[in-house]
Amino acid sequence: MGLFDRVRRLVSANLNDLVNKAEDPEKILEQSILEMQEDIVQLRQGVALAIAAQKRTEKQYNDAASEINKWQRNAQLALQKGDENLARQALERKKTFSETSTSLKTSLDQQIAQVDSLKRNLIQLESKLSEAKTKKEMLKARITAAKAQEQLGSMVKGMNTSSAMAAFERMEEKVMIQEARAQSVAELAGSDLENQFAQLESSDVDYELEALKAQMSLTSREKNSQPQLPQQSIKNQPIPENQEPVDTELDTLRKELDQM
């Protein structure tokens, strides 16, 4: 007996597992809505039949009440005419309709209660159907989001994150090196440009100095090309009185400048 219980439990567990795996939430939700709609249709039909039966019973009850009143009047009329036997028969008919009316009244009360209960159940089921439709759309949206998240997780899990991040870091380092090179070239170019402007902004004294150097160089070449006077003639020239040798040398330099 224990073995049979274990086998039954195992089969049930496997069947439940297969059913759970085969269940598609979206399809189950749609099927649940369809079943609720079918139940509402059947309940509406039941309510309609119950209301129709109530109407028939109510009509029968009203007809019985009319018959009771009619035979009551007939009994009174027979007594007024002095026909007691006929009055007795009228009261017997009245009694029969009274018993029927009592039975109909009991059935009518039961039918009214049943119709009221069916109406309440119909309203509740319609409300649940409306709520289920709203929840169905929300659950479908959640299912879609969950599937998307699951797919994204699978994609992220399947990605080689370490390799991708390492490649990304290498590319970032290369970009930084390239930017540093570009910045160095820009700085060097800026430095050369500044030097050029500094040269343009240099003092005119430099130009004058170069011009003077060039002029003196030209004068020196011209002087070397002219015949030189004997040094003895210069030495033998009389030195004026009261004139220092420095003054004499200065006069000589002046004369050379005059000849330039």
Notable traits:
260 residues, mainly alpha, Helix Hairpins, 2 domains, 7 helices, 91% helix, 0% strand, rod-shaped
Question: Explain this structure to me?
Answer:
It is a single chain. By secondary structure, this protein is an all-alpha fold. The chain contains seven helices and no strands. The model is unreliable at 229-236 (pLDDT under 50).
Average pLDDT for all residues: 76
The Rg value, from CA coordinates, equals: 65 Å
CATH C-level name of the largest domain: Mainly Alpha
Give the low-confidence spans: 229-236
Distance between the termini: 144 Å
How many separate domains?
Answer: 2
Structural class: mainly alpha
Q: What is the helix fraction of residues, given as a range?
A: over 70%
The fraction of residues assigned to DSSP E strands is under 5%
- Could you spell the SSE succession in H and E letters? HHHHHHH
Described by the principal axes of the CA atoms, the overall outline is rod-shaped
**In DSSP terms, counting alpha (H) and pi (I) runs of 4 or more, how many helices?**
7
Counting copies of identical and different chains, the oligomeric state is: single chain
In total, how many beta strands? 0
CATH topology of the largest domain: Helix Hairpins
Give the second-level CATH assignment, the architecture of the largest domain.
Answer: Orthogonal Bundle
Mind describing the biggest β-sheet? Answer: none
InterPro entries: PspA_VIPP1 (IPR007157)
Pfam families: PspA_IM30
Coiled coil: 54-81, 108-149
Biased composition (Basic and acidic residues): 251-260
